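Section 5.1 Outputs to date
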Amino acid sequence: MGNYRGDTGGLFSRRTLKGWLFFILAGSFFLYEFFCRASMGPMENLFRVDLNINVATVGLISSAFYLAYSIMQIPVGLLVDKFGVRRMGGFAITLTAIGCLVFSMSHSVPLAWIGRFIIGIGAAFGYVLMFKIILEWFPHKHLGFMGGMTQILGMIGPLIAGVPLTLALEGTDGNWRLIFYFVVFFGAILAVIFYSIVRDGRAEPTQQIKHEKYNVFQHLKKMVKYKQLWVIAIYVFFAYGSIELLGSLFGMTYLQRIGYSPVDSAAIVAFLWLGLGFGSPIIGVISDRLQKRKIVLLGCSIVGVLASTIFLWVPMDSKFITCILFLGIGIAAGAQSLTFPAVVENITPELEGTSIGFNNMFVLLGASVIQIVGGWLITFFSSPGLNNHTDVVLENSPQVIHGYQMALSLSLIHI
């Protein structure tokens, strides 16, 4: 990997203290959009019955978020490079809240899909904003660690979308729409706070391009010539889907199918996000010290494959072991945070935002594909069990459980 740029200074200098404030605010948006992303898991049964649809359709609706998120990543990178973190952050949070409002009011598949798609467009800015703040306000020698720190803040979102959301759904008799109205309100408040406080770190974006014409196609042409960028993107396409498949959509439902209660299922899935959140900065520190990203990435892949295989195909009746396996899968998936420092180390400064967006596009494009295929596999292998969504006996039958196992086995490919 190339040498870091801006290696002077520590993590808690006068400049970085201000950066930490901006980082936490951007992280609040990241956890907010992560909550929206992961909320489909606890709501899957309620949502499916409410709209009278099958699992394949739920997967299609859920994937709208990831489709929008992925196709927006290059435009997001260009927009953040051109207009800066403050303006684009305020816009993105507002748009995400609007998407939540549309989704909460949906009573049909098209409107629900559109709502998730709008949420995905706004959420697409989340990680890019955080990493741009890291690049502008923190020494680059800490890129691996700070990249991992993004996962700690992001982890809070799916944790809230686990046990707390499950309990909220039980307390409101399954009224997921009411809960989303509160989500919309929180987003509106966050948008105002973010725009009022956050500032761009380097020269104003318009000054950066004052003496040159900002040519989008020239910008992209420069970026796609970096071969290492494509190698990293292909890796991350297959590295992250397991987290979204298990943690954001079908993991909780599968755990309930094999006998766990809704609260226990949410608690087990929480270990997935804990592994991702706390494992990412540790993995980042290790890779920063070794200065060998490839070895760390390979090691994490092996851990992820082993943990997923044992969870899905080795018979067991231990909540403790299942939690440990989910923790291992989360830690393994945390390696995807290393791909962003790897990208930055291989490109020039003016392409930072765009290249981060390019890499993040492949992260979520993989998640979009795996959710669509996973939903289809569950329906295919479980039919007719899941076509009659009111029949609890059929939903817990070996046929249906096998359908979930086949779908979740996609996580072996995506690690």
